Description:
The chain is an all-alpha fold. The protein contains 10 helices and no strands. It folds into 2 domains: 14-146, CHAD domain, CATH 1.40.20; 159-298.
Amino acid sequence: MAPSPKSGLRADTHPETALRHIAAGCHADLLKYRAAVLKSAQPNGIHQTRVALRRLRAAFGLFRDAIDGPAVRSLAAEARWLARECGPARDLQVFLTETVTDVPPVVRRVGRRLADIHLQHARAALSGARFAAFDRALQAFAAKSPAASPATPSADNRLDAFGRTVLDARLAKALRRGRKLEQFDADRLHRLRIAIKKLRYAASFLAPAFASTTFASMRVKPYIEATVRLQGALGALNDRAVAAQVLADLATAARPTEDVALPLKALAKQVASGEKRRRRRLERAWADFRKAERFWRA
């Protein structure tokens, strides 16, 4: 059975082999975008660095039933720490460039100063001894051969069988989390967003296991696109919660000579507006997601 040309994975790949392969890809992306963060202040570097770390953590969580232990848990914990260290820099970028418009000059000035502080903090995390140890451990993990990989894969150690079980479970959890969506508060929306994000990454990682079936392959892209749209709609609502912290950080970073109280109040009002529009977008995305056909059951 030929592997998926882009991923190198196939239906009969052992799940542990798949995890190490995915981890190697995430590691390569992390090193690429880490280099961009260390030499440039362009926003894409910090964004893609966080994406690589998020994907890595998602992969470790996804394959927990196939391979677990202190080494895997340690790598997942370090990836989480690094993502958190890079978080404030990305949150500020999103707030100033996507969440609000017409940012007053005084707030932009404070934002530039704060962005530099956040960037230096992220760079310190990505260039210190702790990162170097994580880098070595992740490289060793990705390069290590599975402890046991049978010559003739059985239903218990094939990626497609593993994928069906995991995707069914993650979809069921997302559907449970989405019940009575119209009544959700910020906390329940956040939990649903996490469930959808985990499902989306699982679908992306496991899709190559179903690439040999033409009908399943045709369903992969629409399904993942439906999860992306839903995650985006949930993320737009989550940005409001994140914005509150960013506004507080901007107020704290302002100098005594910089009167930001009224400008920040105006931005807070802007953030709070459009709730009904965002809710309608979420409801449409949820309806589309529920109609999407499960490619792993084609």
